[in-house]
Amino acid sequence: MSSINAGDTAWVLMSGALVLFMTPGLAIFYGGMVRAKSTLNMMMMSFAAMGVTTILWVLYAYSLAFGPDAGNGLIGNLHNIGLADTINQVVGSPGHTIPTLAFVMFQLTFAIITVALLSGAIADRAKYSAWILFVGLWITLVYAPIAHWAFASQGGNGGWIIDRLGALDFAGGTVVEINSGAAALALAIVLGKREGFKRDPMRPHNMPLVLLGAGMLWFGWFGFNAGSALAANGLAATAMINTQVATAAAVMSWIAYEKLREGKATTLGAASGAIAGAVAITPACGFVTPLGALAIGLVGGVVSAFGVSRKYKWNYDDSLDVVGVHGLGGFVGMIAIGLIATKSANELGGEGLFISGSPTLLQKQIIAALAVAAFSFITTYIIATILQKTVGFRVRREVELEGLDTSIHAESAYDISSFTTR
Protein backbone atom coordinates (compact mmCIF):
# COMPACT_ATOMS: atom_id res chain seq x y z
CA MET A 1 0.00 0.00 0.00
CA SER A 2 3.00 2.31 0.40
CA SER A 3 3.24 2.46 -3.39
CA ILE A 4 -0.15 4.05 -3.99
CA ASN A 5 -0.41 7.34 -5.84
CA ALA A 6 -2.25 9.66 -3.45
CA GLY A 7 -3.53 12.01 -6.15
CA ASP A 8 -4.89 9.21 -8.31
CA THR A 9 -6.45 7.55 -5.30
CA ALA A 10 -8.18 10.76 -4.25
CA TRP A 11 -9.55 11.23 -7.78
CA VAL A 12 -10.91 7.69 -8.04
CA LEU A 13 -12.50 7.92 -4.59
CA MET A 14 -14.13 11.22 -5.54
CA SER A 15 -15.23 9.78 -8.88
CA GLY A 16 -16.87 6.84 -7.12
CA ALA A 17 -18.81 9.28 -4.96
CA LEU A 18 -19.85 11.26 -8.05
CA VAL A 19 -21.12 8.15 -9.83
CA LEU A 20 -23.04 7.02 -6.74
CA PHE A 21 -24.59 10.51 -6.65
CA MET A 22 -25.99 9.76 -10.11
CA THR A 23 -28.42 7.14 -8.78
CA PRO A 24 -30.33 9.54 -6.50
CA GLY A 25 -30.18 11.92 -9.46
CA LEU A 26 -31.73 9.22 -11.62
CA ALA A 27 -34.40 8.65 -8.98
CA ILE A 28 -35.34 12.34 -9.11
CA PHE A 29 -35.15 12.40 -12.92
CA TYR A 30 -37.39 9.35 -13.26
CA GLY A 31 -39.61 10.43 -10.36
CA GLY A 32 -40.48 13.64 -12.17
CA MET A 33 -41.09 11.87 -15.47
CA VAL A 34 -43.79 9.50 -14.22
CA ARG A 35 -47.33 10.38 -13.17
CA ALA A 36 -47.72 11.67 -9.63
CA LYS A 37 -49.33 8.46 -8.36
CA SER A 38 -46.13 6.43 -8.91
CA THR A 39 -43.43 8.95 -8.01
CA LEU A 40 -42.22 7.28 -4.82
CA ASN A 41 -42.27 3.82 -6.33
CA MET A 42 -40.03 5.04 -9.14
CA MET A 43 -37.57 6.46 -6.65
CA MET A 44 -37.70 3.36 -4.47
CA MET A 45 -36.69 1.20 -7.44
CA SER A 46 -33.42 3.14 -7.65
CA PHE A 47 -32.81 2.79 -3.93
CA ALA A 48 -33.47 -0.95 -4.10
CA ALA A 49 -30.84 -1.13 -6.85
CA MET A 50 -28.36 0.55 -4.51
CA GLY A 51 -29.10 -1.86 -1.68
CA VAL A 52 -29.26 -5.19 -3.51
CA THR A 53 -26.34 -4.51 -5.84
CA THR A 54 -24.02 -3.46 -3.02
CA ILE A 55 -24.70 -6.62 -1.04
CA LEU A 56 -24.16 -8.91 -4.03
CA TRP A 57 -21.06 -6.97 -5.14
CA VAL A 58 -19.38 -7.73 -1.84
CA LEU A 59 -20.51 -11.35 -1.71
CA TYR A 60 -19.60 -12.51 -5.22
CA ALA A 61 -20.54 -10.17 -8.09
CA TYR A 62 -17.27 -8.20 -8.02
CA SER A 63 -15.37 -11.47 -8.24
CA LEU A 64 -17.44 -12.64 -11.22
CA ALA A 65 -16.85 -9.32 -12.97
CA PHE A 66 -13.20 -8.69 -12.12
CA GLY A 67 -11.82 -11.90 -10.64
CA PRO A 68 -9.10 -13.83 -12.51
CA ASP A 69 -10.37 -15.09 -15.83
CA ALA A 70 -11.03 -18.81 -16.22
CA GLY A 71 -9.33 -18.69 -19.61
CA ASN A 72 -12.37 -18.19 -21.82
CA GLY A 73 -12.77 -14.41 -21.54
CA LEU A 74 -16.41 -14.80 -20.45
CA ILE A 75 -16.47 -14.61 -16.65
CA GLY A 76 -14.23 -14.22 -13.64
CA ASN A 77 -13.87 -16.87 -10.98
CA LEU A 78 -14.71 -16.69 -7.27
CA HIS A 79 -11.18 -15.90 -6.12
CA ASN A 80 -12.37 -12.57 -4.69
CA ILE A 81 -15.56 -13.88 -3.09
CA GLY A 82 -16.41 -11.76 -0.06
CA LEU A 83 -13.81 -9.27 -1.42
CA ALA A 84 -11.04 -11.69 -0.45
CA ASP A 85 -7.54 -10.55 -1.46
CA THR A 86 -8.64 -6.96 -2.01
CA ILE A 87 -7.76 -5.36 1.34
CA ASN A 88 -4.29 -3.78 1.36
CA GLN A 89 -3.86 -4.62 -2.34
CA VAL A 90 -3.29 -2.25 -5.25
CA VAL A 91 -4.26 -2.07 -8.92
CA GLY A 92 -3.10 0.13 -11.76
CA SER A 93 -0.06 0.80 -13.88
CA PRO A 94 3.37 1.64 -12.39
CA GLY A 95 3.28 5.08 -10.86
CA HIS A 96 -0.53 5.15 -10.95
CA THR A 97 -1.50 2.45 -8.48
CA ILE A 98 -4.57 2.86 -6.30
CA PRO A 99 -6.01 0.69 -3.52
CA THR A 100 -7.99 -2.22 -4.94
CA LEU A 101 -10.89 -1.30 -2.69
CA ALA A 102 -11.06 2.12 -4.35
CA PHE A 103 -11.46 0.34 -7.68
CA VAL A 104 -14.04 -2.03 -6.15
CA MET A 105 -16.11 0.92 -4.95
CA PHE A 106 -15.80 2.79 -8.24
CA GLN A 107 -16.99 -0.20 -10.24
CA LEU A 108 -19.80 -0.91 -7.77
CA THR A 109 -21.33 2.46 -8.55
CA PHE A 110 -21.38 1.56 -12.25
CA ALA A 111 -23.28 -1.64 -11.52
CA ILE A 112 -25.80 0.26 -9.38
CA ILE A 113 -26.63 2.93 -11.93
CA THR A 114 -26.87 0.40 -14.77
CA VAL A 115 -29.55 -1.77 -13.20
CA ALA A 116 -31.35 1.30 -11.84
CA LEU A 117 -31.68 2.58 -15.41
CA LEU A 118 -33.84 -0.41 -16.30
CA SER A 119 -36.60 0.69 -13.94
CA GLY A 120 -37.49 3.46 -16.38
CA ALA A 121 -38.64 0.96 -18.99
CA ILE A 122 -41.27 -0.58 -16.69
CA ALA A 123 -42.44 2.47 -14.75
CA ASP A 124 -45.99 2.41 -13.33
CA ARG A 125 -46.52 -1.35 -13.61
CA ALA A 126 -43.86 -3.52 -11.92
CA LYS A 127 -44.19 -5.34 -8.59
CA TYR A 128 -41.65 -3.97 -6.14
CA SER A 129 -40.87 -7.41 -4.67
CA ALA A 130 -40.34 -8.86 -8.14
CA TRP A 131 -38.11 -5.90 -9.01
CA ILE A 132 -35.86 -6.70 -6.04
CA LEU A 133 -35.55 -10.32 -7.21
CA PHE A 134 -34.88 -9.13 -10.75
CA VAL A 135 -32.06 -6.82 -9.64
CA GLY A 136 -30.25 -9.70 -7.95
CA LEU A 137 -30.64 -12.05 -10.89
CA TRP A 138 -29.73 -9.42 -13.48
CA ILE A 139 -26.57 -8.27 -11.71
CA THR A 140 -25.47 -11.91 -11.44
CA LEU A 141 -26.41 -13.24 -14.87
CA VAL A 142 -26.14 -10.18 -17.13
CA TYR A 143 -24.13 -7.32 -15.65
CA ALA A 144 -21.24 -9.28 -14.13
CA PRO A 145 -20.44 -11.25 -17.30
CA ILE A 146 -20.63 -8.18 -19.57
CA ALA A 147 -18.53 -6.13 -17.14
CA HIS A 148 -15.92 -8.88 -17.31
CA TRP A 149 -16.02 -8.89 -21.12
CA ALA A 150 -15.38 -5.17 -21.48
CA PHE A 151 -13.73 -3.95 -18.28
CA ALA A 152 -11.59 -6.82 -16.97
CA SER A 153 -8.23 -6.47 -18.68
CA GLN A 154 -5.60 -8.85 -17.36
CA GLY A 155 -2.68 -8.47 -19.72
CA GLY A 156 -4.18 -10.41 -22.60
CA ASN A 157 -6.05 -12.89 -20.42
CA GLY A 158 -9.10 -10.89 -19.46
CA GLY A 159 -12.52 -10.26 -20.97
CA TRP A 160 -12.95 -11.14 -24.62
CA ILE A 161 -14.09 -7.70 -25.83
CA ILE A 162 -11.04 -5.81 -24.62
CA ASP A 163 -8.29 -8.44 -24.47
CA ARG A 164 -9.29 -10.80 -27.26
CA LEU A 165 -11.34 -8.79 -29.79
CA GLY A 166 -9.49 -5.53 -29.21
CA ALA A 167 -12.54 -3.26 -29.24
CA LEU A 168 -12.45 0.01 -27.31
CA ASP A 169 -14.84 1.17 -24.60
CA PHE A 170 -13.49 3.82 -22.27
CA ALA A 171 -16.27 4.16 -19.70
CA GLY A 172 -19.13 1.78 -20.42
CA GLY A 173 -20.79 2.18 -23.80
CA THR A 174 -21.30 -1.57 -23.84
CA VAL A 175 -21.45 -2.44 -20.14
CA VAL A 176 -23.76 0.37 -19.08
CA GLU A 177 -25.47 1.93 -22.08
CA ILE A 178 -26.09 -0.73 -24.75
CA ASN A 179 -26.58 -3.29 -22.00
CA SER A 180 -29.27 -1.22 -20.26
CA GLY A 181 -30.96 -0.29 -23.55
CA ALA A 182 -31.25 -3.89 -24.74
CA ALA A 183 -32.40 -5.12 -21.33
CA ALA A 184 -34.95 -2.31 -21.11
CA LEU A 185 -36.47 -3.39 -24.43
CA ALA A 186 -36.77 -6.98 -23.19
CA LEU A 187 -38.46 -5.83 -19.97
CA ALA A 188 -40.90 -3.57 -21.81
CA ILE A 189 -41.92 -6.46 -24.07
CA VAL A 190 -42.37 -8.99 -21.25
CA LEU A 191 -44.35 -6.70 -18.94
CA GLY A 192 -46.41 -5.22 -21.76
CA LYS A 193 -47.87 -1.77 -22.20
CA ARG A 194 -49.26 0.44 -19.46
CA GLU A 195 -53.01 0.76 -19.14
CA GLY A 196 -54.01 3.57 -21.48
CA PHE A 197 -50.83 3.53 -23.55
CA LYS A 198 -51.31 5.73 -26.64
CA ARG A 199 -54.77 6.69 -25.29
CA ASP A 200 -54.26 8.54 -22.02
CA PRO A 201 -51.84 11.45 -21.53
CA MET A 202 -48.81 10.18 -19.62
CA ARG A 203 -46.79 13.35 -19.46
CA PRO A 204 -44.17 13.99 -16.76
CA HIS A 205 -45.93 15.32 -13.69
CA ASN A 206 -43.06 17.51 -12.40
CA MET A 207 -40.66 19.02 -14.92
CA PRO A 208 -38.57 20.91 -12.32
CA LEU A 209 -37.73 17.52 -10.80
CA VAL A 210 -36.80 16.19 -14.24
CA LEU A 211 -34.44 19.09 -14.88
CA LEU A 212 -32.93 18.83 -11.40
CA GLY A 213 -32.34 15.13 -11.87
CA ALA A 214 -30.80 15.68 -15.30
CA GLY A 215 -28.47 18.29 -13.81
CA MET A 216 -27.39 15.87 -11.09
CA LEU A 217 -26.72 13.19 -13.71
CA TRP A 218 -24.73 15.64 -15.84
CA PHE A 219 -22.61 16.55 -12.82
CA GLY A 220 -22.07 12.95 -11.76
CA TRP A 221 -21.11 11.93 -15.30
CA PHE A 222 -17.75 13.66 -14.90
CA GLY A 223 -16.87 11.01 -12.34
CA PHE A 224 -18.32 8.33 -14.59
CA ASN A 225 -16.17 9.25 -17.61
CA ALA A 226 -13.14 11.11 -16.33
CA GLY A 227 -12.87 8.77 -13.37
CA SER A 228 -12.48 5.85 -15.77
CA ALA A 229 -8.95 7.03 -16.48
CA LEU A 230 -8.24 5.73 -12.95
CA ALA A 231 -5.70 8.52 -12.61
CA ALA A 232 -5.61 12.29 -12.17
CA ASN A 233 -3.87 12.91 -15.47
CA GLY A 234 -4.24 14.35 -18.95
CA LEU A 235 -6.45 11.50 -20.10
CA ALA A 236 -8.92 12.28 -17.32
CA ALA A 237 -8.93 15.91 -18.45
CA THR A 238 -9.60 14.83 -22.05
CA ALA A 239 -12.49 12.64 -20.92
CA MET A 240 -13.93 15.45 -18.80
CA ILE A 241 -13.94 18.15 -21.48
CA ASN A 242 -15.29 15.67 -24.03
CA THR A 243 -18.12 14.80 -21.65
CA GLN A 244 -19.07 18.46 -21.25
CA VAL A 245 -18.86 19.20 -24.98
CA ALA A 246 -20.92 16.21 -26.13
CA THR A 247 -23.57 16.66 -23.45
CA ALA A 248 -24.04 20.33 -24.26
CA ALA A 249 -24.11 19.65 -28.00
CA ALA A 250 -26.80 17.00 -27.63
CA VAL A 251 -29.00 19.37 -25.63
CA MET A 252 -29.01 21.73 -28.57
CA SER A 253 -29.39 19.10 -31.30
CA TRP A 254 -32.30 17.42 -29.49
CA ILE A 255 -34.27 20.63 -29.04
CA ALA A 256 -33.44 21.67 -32.61
CA TYR A 257 -34.88 18.35 -33.79
CA GLU A 258 -38.00 19.00 -31.67
CA LYS A 259 -38.37 22.51 -33.03
CA LEU A 260 -38.18 21.33 -36.63
CA ARG A 261 -40.47 18.34 -36.04
CA GLU A 262 -43.06 19.70 -33.60
CA GLY A 263 -42.57 23.46 -33.69
CA LYS A 264 -41.64 23.60 -29.98
CA ALA A 265 -38.43 23.11 -28.03
CA THR A 266 -39.36 21.47 -24.71
CA THR A 267 -37.72 21.27 -21.31
CA LEU A 268 -38.12 17.49 -21.40
CA GLY A 269 -36.24 17.52 -24.69
CA ALA A 270 -33.40 19.54 -23.18
CA ALA A 271 -33.14 17.16 -20.21
CA SER A 272 -33.31 14.09 -22.43
CA GLY A 273 -30.77 15.58 -24.81
CA ALA A 274 -28.31 16.08 -21.99
CA ILE A 275 -28.55 12.43 -21.02
CA ALA A 276 -28.31 11.30 -24.65
CA GLY A 277 -25.12 13.29 -25.20
CA ALA A 278 -23.51 11.99 -22.02
CA VAL A 279 -24.46 8.45 -23.04
CA ALA A 280 -23.05 8.77 -26.56
CA ILE A 281 -19.69 10.12 -25.41
CA THR A 282 -19.28 7.56 -22.62
CA PRO A 283 -17.42 4.87 -24.62
CA ALA A 284 -15.53 7.41 -26.73
CA CYS A 285 -14.57 10.11 -24.20
CA GLY A 286 -10.99 8.86 -23.82
CA PHE A 287 -10.38 8.18 -27.51
CA VAL A 288 -11.52 11.30 -29.43
CA THR A 289 -10.68 14.99 -29.56
CA PRO A 290 -13.06 17.70 -28.33
CA LEU A 291 -14.13 18.35 -31.94
CA GLY A 292 -14.92 14.65 -32.23
CA ALA A 293 -16.93 14.89 -29.02
CA LEU A 294 -18.87 17.81 -30.50
CA ALA A 295 -19.81 15.70 -33.50
CA ILE A 296 -20.79 12.75 -31.30
CA GLY A 297 -23.03 14.94 -29.17
CA LEU A 298 -24.77 16.51 -32.15
CA VAL A 299 -25.42 13.14 -33.77
CA GLY A 300 -26.29 11.42 -30.49
CA GLY A 301 -28.97 13.97 -29.64
CA VAL A 302 -30.72 13.63 -32.99
CA VAL A 303 -30.47 9.84 -33.18
CA SER A 304 -31.85 9.40 -29.66
CA ALA A 305 -34.65 11.93 -30.23
CA PHE A 306 -35.64 10.09 -33.38
CA GLY A 307 -35.49 6.74 -31.60
CA VAL A 308 -37.70 7.93 -28.76
CA SER A 309 -40.27 9.23 -31.26
CA ARG A 310 -40.48 5.76 -32.86
CA LYS A 311 -41.69 3.83 -29.81
CA TYR A 312 -45.34 4.65 -30.51
CA LYS A 313 -45.01 3.67 -34.15
CA TRP A 314 -43.24 0.43 -33.23
CA ASN A 315 -45.75 -0.16 -30.44
CA TYR A 316 -43.58 -0.93 -27.42
CA ASP A 317 -43.99 0.87 -24.11
CA ASP A 318 -40.56 1.89 -22.88
CA SER A 319 -42.04 4.26 -20.32
CA LEU A 320 -39.10 6.61 -19.78
CA ASP A 321 -37.16 6.13 -23.01
CA VAL A 322 -34.31 3.92 -21.85
CA VAL A 323 -34.07 2.16 -25.20
CA GLY A 324 -33.96 5.30 -27.31
CA VAL A 325 -31.61 7.27 -25.07
CA HIS A 326 -29.26 4.67 -23.61
CA GLY A 327 -29.43 1.89 -26.18
CA LEU A 328 -29.18 4.01 -29.31
CA GLY A 329 -26.87 6.52 -27.65
CA GLY A 330 -24.51 3.70 -26.70
CA PHE A 331 -24.44 2.46 -30.29
CA VAL A 332 -23.65 5.97 -31.53
CA GLY A 333 -20.67 6.21 -29.20
CA MET A 334 -19.30 2.75 -30.00
CA ILE A 335 -19.59 3.27 -33.76
CA ALA A 336 -18.08 6.76 -33.46
CA ILE A 337 -14.95 5.21 -31.98
CA GLY A 338 -14.61 3.08 -35.10
CA LEU A 339 -14.91 6.19 -37.25
CA ILE A 340 -13.07 9.05 -35.50
CA ALA A 341 -10.93 7.61 -32.69
CA THR A 342 -7.42 9.02 -32.82
CA LYS A 343 -4.20 8.25 -31.02
CA SER A 344 -3.61 11.99 -30.70
CA ALA A 345 -6.24 11.87 -27.95
CA ASN A 346 -4.98 8.61 -26.42
CA GLU A 347 -1.84 6.87 -27.64
CA LEU A 348 -3.11 3.61 -26.14
CA GLY A 349 -6.36 3.85 -28.10
CA GLY A 350 -6.85 3.30 -31.82
CA GLU A 351 -7.41 4.96 -35.16
CA GLY A 352 -10.89 5.06 -36.67
CA LEU A 353 -11.84 4.67 -40.33
CA PHE A 354 -11.80 8.41 -41.03
CA ILE A 355 -8.32 8.72 -39.51
CA SER A 356 -6.53 5.60 -40.69
CA GLY A 357 -8.59 4.59 -43.70
CA SER A 358 -8.94 1.10 -42.25
CA PRO A 359 -12.33 -0.38 -41.22
CA THR A 360 -10.73 -2.81 -38.75
CA LEU A 361 -11.54 -0.91 -35.56
CA LEU A 362 -15.06 -0.12 -36.78
CA GLN A 363 -15.70 -3.81 -37.36
CA LYS A 364 -14.53 -4.62 -33.84
CA GLN A 365 -16.76 -1.92 -32.36
CA ILE A 366 -19.83 -3.22 -34.20
CA ILE A 367 -19.15 -6.83 -33.14
CA ALA A 368 -18.78 -5.80 -29.48
CA ALA A 369 -21.93 -3.66 -29.54
CA LEU A 370 -24.09 -6.30 -31.21
CA ALA A 371 -22.82 -9.11 -29.00
CA VAL A 372 -23.61 -7.20 -25.81
CA ALA A 373 -27.04 -6.17 -27.09
CA ALA A 374 -27.94 -9.73 -28.07
CA PHE A 375 -26.73 -11.32 -24.84
CA SER A 376 -28.40 -8.68 -22.66
CA PHE A 377 -31.73 -8.81 -24.51
CA ILE A 378 -32.00 -12.61 -24.58
CA THR A 379 -30.89 -13.19 -20.99
CA THR A 380 -33.05 -10.37 -19.61
CA TYR A 381 -36.05 -11.64 -21.56
CA ILE A 382 -35.59 -15.10 -20.02
CA ILE A 383 -35.18 -13.74 -16.48
CA ALA A 384 -38.23 -11.46 -16.77
CA THR A 385 -40.37 -14.20 -18.30
CA ILE A 386 -39.52 -16.65 -15.52
CA LEU A 387 -40.37 -14.04 -12.87
CA GLN A 388 -43.61 -13.15 -14.63
CA LYS A 389 -44.72 -16.79 -14.78
CA THR A 390 -43.69 -17.63 -11.20
CA VAL A 391 -43.98 -14.76 -8.72
CA GLY A 392 -45.59 -12.33 -11.17
CA PHE A 393 -43.65 -9.30 -12.35
CA ARG A 394 -46.52 -6.99 -13.30
CA VAL A 395 -48.98 -5.59 -10.78
CA ARG A 396 -52.71 -6.21 -11.03
CA ARG A 397 -54.73 -3.82 -13.18
CA GLU A 398 -56.49 -2.22 -10.20
CA VAL A 399 -53.14 -1.56 -8.50
CA GLU A 400 -51.78 0.10 -11.62
CA LEU A 401 -54.86 2.29 -11.99
CA GLU A 402 -54.78 3.34 -8.33
CA GLY A 403 -51.08 4.09 -8.44
CA LEU A 404 -48.14 2.16 -7.04
CA ASP A 405 -47.30 4.64 -4.29
CA THR A 406 -50.40 4.05 -2.19
CA SER A 407 -50.95 0.43 -3.24
CA ILE A 408 -47.43 -0.85 -2.62
CA HIS A 409 -45.80 1.64 -0.25
CA ALA A 410 -48.82 3.06 1.60
CA GLU A 411 -47.48 6.55 0.93
CA SER A 412 -47.86 9.32 -1.60
CA ALA A 413 -45.41 11.88 -2.89
CA TYR A 414 -47.85 14.73 -2.42
CA ASP A 415 -50.42 15.37 0.29
CA ILE A 416 -53.14 16.58 -2.06
CA SER A 417 -55.74 16.80 0.70
CA SER A 418 -53.81 19.52 2.52
CA PHE A 419 -54.26 21.74 -0.54
CA THR A 420 -57.91 20.90 -1.30
CA THR A 421 -59.18 21.41 2.26
CA ARG A 422 -57.83 24.92 2.71
Keywords:
422 residues
Task: Walk me through what this model shows.
The protein has 422 residues and is mostly helical. It has a single domain, classed as Ammonium transporter AmtB like domains (Ammonium transporter fold, Orthogonal Bundle). It contains 17 helices and two strands. The chain has a two-stranded antiparallel sheet. A hairpin with a 6-residue loop joins β1 (90-91) and β2. α2 crosses α3, α7 (207-226) runs antiparallel to α8 (234-262) and α9 (267-281) packs across α10 (290-309). The longest helix is centred in the last third of the chain and has 31 residues, at 360-390. It starts with 5 loop residues before the first helix and ends with a helix. 57% of the residues are buried. The mean pLDDT is 95.
List the helices and strands and how they pair.
Elements lengths: L5 H28 L5 H28 L23 E2 L6 E2 H19 L9 H24 L8 H6 L7 H19 L15 H20 L7 H29 L4 H15 L8 H20 L1 H4 L7 H19 L12 H4 L3 H31 L6 H6 L1 H6 L6 H5 L2
Antiparallel strand pairs: 1-2
Helix pairs in contact: 1-2, 1-3, 1-7, 2-3, 2-4, 3-4, 3-6, 4-6, 4-14, 6-12, 6-14, 7-8, 7-9, 8-9, 8-10, 9-10, 9-12, 10-12, 12-14
